[in-house]
């Protein structure tokens, strides 16, 4: 620790602290424009100038100067104030001062400092800039006339996002923040630059002229897209969510969001939202009252009680824990059926079967915080960035700032594979388990296995046949990864799961866990296995038991049951099987066949359109409750706006049904959480009030066990391409289709091909192609690049039109032909 | 330095062999971006866009950062440059000796202005601040050849001389 005096206050700080940090630690605010706690110090704006007794004769920038023992610092003297005023005058010389029409007004650091330092006149006169404003994209407006050259946008885009869209171009008075070739912004549109811009140079276009900053009601909540569980602040007014507000003190991610979180909120107030219940009459869905709709559902479920096996229920892991708890109680308890499931059944098996067998818990052994505490990250599929972008930021930061080694095993390249020092092993699609088995074998062969691992002999026997060759990679690569992983002080495997990744199943979770257990890389900080659930409450859905536990049907069997008549009543809370479950035609046929289907959803989805009763549900912004992130963090979701139209939250719907069917009735969702805390062991001792803003990570007790995982034999399909599905960066599930932001950047389904395959098939970027498998054919646009290797096609699954589940059947890889139309 | 984007040259017209060789040469050198860009500028006479994309990919540097470097230093050019670079000094000594009339005459004869290139890529014209030979003011240079005590007549002679030179 270093001791110093700031404005007469004694303070002791770490030796790598700056004067700015030290001042902050003792509650003294030094003004800044270019500094951000998340970024490397820059020292560009000169607002933070202070006086240091030992460095008399000049003013010292507080943000870049490290503390030294015995330093005596003055942060406010006449000379300092004069210097800061000069800085502001010089900035205001070029700044347009168009505050009345600037969206940053009220949230502008320059405006606030100008006010604070009473800069009511300017001794200098000069022309303003006359840069063209970039309106080329509908998400981020770039008005470089307002820019004060703090460089934060370029630094955050480089240091955290690792995209590098911005740079200073030209020099001297001509210098400005620009993009490559000074063209329009063309990036990931995560909006990180907008969030850190201290002035109104970078604006969120969807929010432009929507509301003054101070008129917004601010509600702290949790993002409802992926399983990362990013905290966000919703800005709402007049019952509408108008924007997300950046708060650098929110969550592990310091307020950072991806494009979905920042610009995907418009689905909440979409004019496509369902506003009234619908009941099918004479073959058509027609508006009805809640009484009518619920009466119909109640009578069906009531009848189903006498034949519970004929009732099945699917829930989306987007619901709150409280809703899922009610859902489970209603169907497993009151109705008495075990036919309940979520996420197509297979998307949670890495947790509910894989982690359970390997670690004895249906949760990730590791937490999100482990990413940056590790020494080596082994990422399964470069898609981890696309599925969980903010964890991608953590990986970026860890690799670039802390020098964490990054090893990627993937069937394609991606953004992560470009990180400095990243080593990527590209394997043939569907060989994940074979590859991990080969890694385990290599660990054993190299004598790197930790001592006294139980079940080693059984695993040895199980992986005896495994080889790098069978996984389609070189023996050197496997040996190197095995050695690095085993010898790293702390090594963490990152495994994204989800409906787009049928191969990321229980067997892969076991195979990956085997490597961690074999090398002793688990049960300690920065090591283990991070299984990344797809949706905002994927972990909560598992914790609340939304999957068949006894003889009940899983999601696939429920669909089969609908088709063969064994399932007569199907309750669907927010799932969209038609688009997101494998084999669309089969699903559609099954849902047509089921006697009675009720769907609660925000939108009239492809599935809801087939229902007999449709109940309009509430989005996350219209309800309170809790979500559990993939890192086991239970967090408070808070209601920001009243329900849209006549919509009711799933909590209200399920509560009403429960009461009507003779089950329990709760007064509010808080009561349910109390019951969760009492009955779900992991949640023991938690209270909603106790979660506060930061939430709480529930602990897990691991009982590790080697579980041999069988690798499937490689399929030979000469002349065909291997189709792999997955997530596009801008989407999550099928809900993001109703957000304008994601839909602007990525509006349609596509098939991504390697340049060589495209050339052989005479396909160019943007061509309409037909992708045909044994299951069906789908028409999509072609994307051509070097990201996917030769022989592989990638297609994201989120879209209703040209939905890739038309041609997939739930296997890891689908062999297809691609032809230009 | 002009803000205008580099002139569109179809990618297939740029042979990247030389650029690849230059990158190969410096690939393992720390801080290799500057020598690579300088090498490319020497080889191609300017830094064509396809080479920027190539450098970005092979050195794993953001294209935006390369563009930032290229626009920061006056030594880099993003547009094709003439075979003959005419530099006329407009520094103090040359200015009082009538440099203005020399530049105006060049502008008139070549039909281009400051930092511009003739369509046939024969000439690029640049006003410069000082060429370090004030005794010979007003001064002009064409590539490495120096012309002192410039007059309007000499402008025509210079143009005639270089019009006669082969382009290859």
From TrEMBL, chain B:
Q: Looking at the keywords, is Membrane present?
A: no
Q: Name one Pfam family in it.
A: 2Fe-2S_thioredx
Instruction: Name the enzyme's class.
Output: oxidoreductase
Domain of life, per lineage: Bacteria
Enzyme Commission (EC) number: 1.6.5.11
Which GO MF terms does the UniProt record name? oxidoreductase activity
> Keywords assigned by UniProt?
Oxidoreductase
The stretch of residues making up the signal peptide is none
* NCBIfam families in the cross-refs: PRK07539.1-2 (NF005722)
Give the protein's recorded name. NADH-quinone oxidoreductase subunit NuoE
**Species annotation:** Geomonas subterranea
* Taxonomic lineage from the root: Bacteria, Pseudomonadati, Thermodesulfobacteriota, Desulfuromonadia, Geobacterales
């Amino acid at each position: 620790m270093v001791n110093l005096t700031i404005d007469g206050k004694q303070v002791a700080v770490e030796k790598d602290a700056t004067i700015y940090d030290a001042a902050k630690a003792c509650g003294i605010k030094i003004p800044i424009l270019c500094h951000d706690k998340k970024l490397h110090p820059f020292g560009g704006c000169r607002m933070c100038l202070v006086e240091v007794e030992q460095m008399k004769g000049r003013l010292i920038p507080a943000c870049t100067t490290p503390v030294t023992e015995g330093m005596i610092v003055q942060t406010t003297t006449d000379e300092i104030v004069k210097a800061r005023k000069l800085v502001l005058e010089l900035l205001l010389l070029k700044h347009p001062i168009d505050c009345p029409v600037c969206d940053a007004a009220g949230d502008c650091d320059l405006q606030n400092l100008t006010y604070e330092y009473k800069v009511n006149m300017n001794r200098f006169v000069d022309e303003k800039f006359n840069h063209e404003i970039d309106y080329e994209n509908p998400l981020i407006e770039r008005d470089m006339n307002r820019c004060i050259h703090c460089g934060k946008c370029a630094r955050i885009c480089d240091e955290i996002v690792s995209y590098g869209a911005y740079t200073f171009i030209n020099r001297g008075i001509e210098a400005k923040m620009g993009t490559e070739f000074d063209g329009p912004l063309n990036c990931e549109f995560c909006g990180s630059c907008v969030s850190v811009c201290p002035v109104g140079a970078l604006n969120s276009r969807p929010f432009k002229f929507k509301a003054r900053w101070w008129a917004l009601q601010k509600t702290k909540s949790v993002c409802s897209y992926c399983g990362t569980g990013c905290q966000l602040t919703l800005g709402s007014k007049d019952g509408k969510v108008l924007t997300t507000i950046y708060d650098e003190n929110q969550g592990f991610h310091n307020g950072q969001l991806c494009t979905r979180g920042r610009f995907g909120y418009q689905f909440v107030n979409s004019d496509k939202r369902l506003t009234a219940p619908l009941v099918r009459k004479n073959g058509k869905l027609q508006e009805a009252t809640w009484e009518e709709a619920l009466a119909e559902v109640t009578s069906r479920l009531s009848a189903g009680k006498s034949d519970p096996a004929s009732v099945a229920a699917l829930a989306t892991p987007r619901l709150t824990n409280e809703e899922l708890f009610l859902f489970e109680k209603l169907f497993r308890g009151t109705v008495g059926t075990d036919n309940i499931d979520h996420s197509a059944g297979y998307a949670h098996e890495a947790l509910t079967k894989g982690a359970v067998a390997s670690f004895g818990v249906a949760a990730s052994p590791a937490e999100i915080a482990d990413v940056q505490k590790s020494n080596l990250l082994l990422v399964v599929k470069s898609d981890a960035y696309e599925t969980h972008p903010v964890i991608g930021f953590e990986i970026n930061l860890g690799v670039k700032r802390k020098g964490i080694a990054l090893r990627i095993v993937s069937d394609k390249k991606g953004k992560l594979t470009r990180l400095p020092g990243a080593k990527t092993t590209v394997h043939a699609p569907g060989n994940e388990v074979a590859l991990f088995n080969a890694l385990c074998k290599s660990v054993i062969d190299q004598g790197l296995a930790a001592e006294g691992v139980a079940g080693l002999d059984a695993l040895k026997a199980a992986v005896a046949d495994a080889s790098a060759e069978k996984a389609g990679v070189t023996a050197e690569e496997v040996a190197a990864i095995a050695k690095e992983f085993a010898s790293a002080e702390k090594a963490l495997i990152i495994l994204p799961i989800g409906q787009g990744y049928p191969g990321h199943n229980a067997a892969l979770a076991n195979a990956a866990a085997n490597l961690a257990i074999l090398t002793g890389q688990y049960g300690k900080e920065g090591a283990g296995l991070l299984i990344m659930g797809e949706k905002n409450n994927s972990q909560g859905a598992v914790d609340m038991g939304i999957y068949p536990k006894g003889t009940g049907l899983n999601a696939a069997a429920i669909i089969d049951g609908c088709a063969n008549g064994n399932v007569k009543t199907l309750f669907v809370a927010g799932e969209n099987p038609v688009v997101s479950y494998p084999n669309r035609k089969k699903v559609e046929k099954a849902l047509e066949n089921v006697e009675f289907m009720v769907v609660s959803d925000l939108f009239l989805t492809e599935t809801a359109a087939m229902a007999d009763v449709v109940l309009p549900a509430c989005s996350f912004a219209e309800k309170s409750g809790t979500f559990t992130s993939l890192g086991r963090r239970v967090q408070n979701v808070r209601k920001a706006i009243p329900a849209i139209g006549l919509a009711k939250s799933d909590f209200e719907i399920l509560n009403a049904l429960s009461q009507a069917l003779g089950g329990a009735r709760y007064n509010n969702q808080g009561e349910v959480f109390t019951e969760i805390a009492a009955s779900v062991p992991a949640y023991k001792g938690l209270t909603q009030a106790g979660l506060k803003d930061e939430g709480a990570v529930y602990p897990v007790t691991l009982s590790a066990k080697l579980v041999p995982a069988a690798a499937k034999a490689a399929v030979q399909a000469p002349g065909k391409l291997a189709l792999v599905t997955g997530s596009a960066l801008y989407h999550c599930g099928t809900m993001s289709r109703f957000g304008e932001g994601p839909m602007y950047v990525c509006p349609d389904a596509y098939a991504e091909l390697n340049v060589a395959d495209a050339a052989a098939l005479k396909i160019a970027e943007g061509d309409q192609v037909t992708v045909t498998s044994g299951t069906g054919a789908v028409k999509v646009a072609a994307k051509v690049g070097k990201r996917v290797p030769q022989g592989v096609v990638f297609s994201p699954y989120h879209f209703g039109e040209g939905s890739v589940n038309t041609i997939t059947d739930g296997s890891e890889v689908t062999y297809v032909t691609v032809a230009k139309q | 330095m002009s803000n205008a984007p580099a002139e569109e040259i179809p990618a297939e017209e740029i042979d990247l062999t030389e650029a690849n060789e230059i990158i190969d040469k410096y690939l393992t050198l720390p801080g290799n971006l500057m020598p690579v860009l300088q090498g490319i500028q020497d080889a191609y006479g300017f830094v064509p866009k396809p080479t920027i994309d190539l450098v970005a990919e092979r050195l794993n540097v953001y294209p935006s950062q390369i563009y930032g470097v290229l626009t920061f230093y006056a030594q880099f050019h993003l547009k094709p440059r003439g075979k003959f670079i005419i530099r006329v000094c407009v520094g103090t000594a040359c200015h009082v000796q009538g440099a203005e009339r020399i530049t105006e005459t060049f502008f008139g004869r070549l039909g281009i202005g400051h930092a511009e290139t003739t369509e046939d890529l024969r000439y690029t014209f640049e006003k410069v601040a000082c060429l370090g030979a004030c005794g010979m003011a007003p001064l002009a240079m064409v590539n490495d050849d120096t012309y002192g005590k410039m007059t309007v007549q000499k402008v025509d002679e210079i143009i005639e001389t270089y019009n006669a030179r082969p382009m290859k």
